[in-house]
Each structure stands twice: as C-alpha cells, then as structure tokens.
Amino acid sequence: MIKVGITGGIGSGKSTVCKVFRVLGIPVFEADSTAKQLMNTDPSLREQLIQLFGPAVYLPNLTIDRKYLAGIVFSNAPLLRKLNEIVHPAVRKAFDEWFLIQHSPYVIHEAAILFESGFYKLMDKTIMVVTNENERIERVVKRDQITAEMVRQRMKNQWSDEKKIKLADFVIGNNDNELIIPQIIEIDKKLKANG
Ligand code: ATP
Predict the structure, then answer these.
(1) Which of 80, 101, 122 represents a domain boundary (last residue)?
(2) What does the alpha-carbon distance between residue 147 and residue 150 come to, in Å, rounded to a whole number?
(3) Are residues 55 and 148 in the same domain?
C-alpha cells in the first residue's frame, strides 16, 4: 500500500480534490484537522501549548482557541515553527497508526505544508494542487469571511507554488477553467498501476 501526499497553497482546493478521491474509495487522512483535534484531546500537547502561548490559548470549554492562535502564529514565523515542532510528531504518530488499519491500493495524506514540514519525504508519491493566487484569495475570503490581507499573510508562511511543483510527482490544476475529475481519474489509474 503506497502513501500519497496531497498539498497545495491555502484555498487551492486540496480538500475539494480529496473529496473526489474519497468517492473513488481511497482513504484520506486529514493532517490539519487531525492536528486541531489532537490539540483538544492530547494532554501532553495541551501542556506544551499552554507553556508556549499561555492559558488563553484554550477557551473556557477547553477547546483550542484557533482564532487566538492564528492571530499569534501567522504573523510570527518563529512561533509558528515552534507550534509545528510540537504538533507534527503527534500527527505523524496518528498517521502511522491510521495507516496500519487501511486496506486500499494507496492512501492519501492531505496537508497544507507537506513540503515545508519535510513530511513529503515519508510519502511514496506527492500531488500538488495548483490554483492562481487571485482565485485562491477570492475563494478563502468567501469561505472563511476573512480579509484578503489576512489570506496574503497566511500565504507568506507557505512556499511558492513553483518550488513545490518541482518536488511533486503529479500536479492538478484547479483554476475556474479546469476540470479536476478527469485529472484525478488519470492519477488514480497511475497510482493503482504502481501500487
Ligand atoms: P485550505 O488550505 O484553506 O484548507 P484547501 O486547499 O483545502 O484550503 P478547499 O477548502 O478545497 O481548499 O477550497 C477552498 C474554497 O474554494 C472552498 O470553499 C471550495 O468549495 C472552493 N473551491 C474549490 N475548488 C473550486 C473550484 N474549482 N471552483 C470554485 N470554487 C472552488
């Protein structure tokens, strides 16, 4: 069973692409939502996050205050790196455990910073979802009700598409004028032939 990493810049359409893979019966591990979930449930992570960001990083109902956290880390690269250093080992462990119980020709690991984190080195193949910057900003502003400036700020913490495309085995174009389903079916065929 091979491991396939999917990534792409903020708002490129990673989750949308993964929805299609799921319909094809492929198991998808969502690294970002797993990270959020672990921040709420893993006592060791909770302790480390409180040490780093103070108790205000958790809401009174003991769930992580994502707005507060985003407000700090997206404008402070060293703190963002520290956050990742704390959270990534826990996500990696969760992925390894999840992988052991899957039955499929291949599985997908979806992550916003697959290349930046070095996690791609643990994958057998990688897919990069590419959408032009203006379209991505427009989609995220609409989806998350945040300003274009906030989206641009988050983009600064991600590598350029050019750099990531060079490392990717497959590229899926998801601009307004492109159809993702035929591209996904083609990649699925190739992965099944390899797997
Ligand atoms: P993030 O990095 O923020 O998690 P993402 O890469 O997972 O984002 P999606 O959430 O899949 O991106 O897509 C961003 C938004 O754009 C969503 O609201 C989604 O419905 C929309 N979207 C995705 N693909 C298209 C498309 N081809 N045309 C129009 N809207 C799209």
Answers:
(1) 101
(2) 5
(3) no
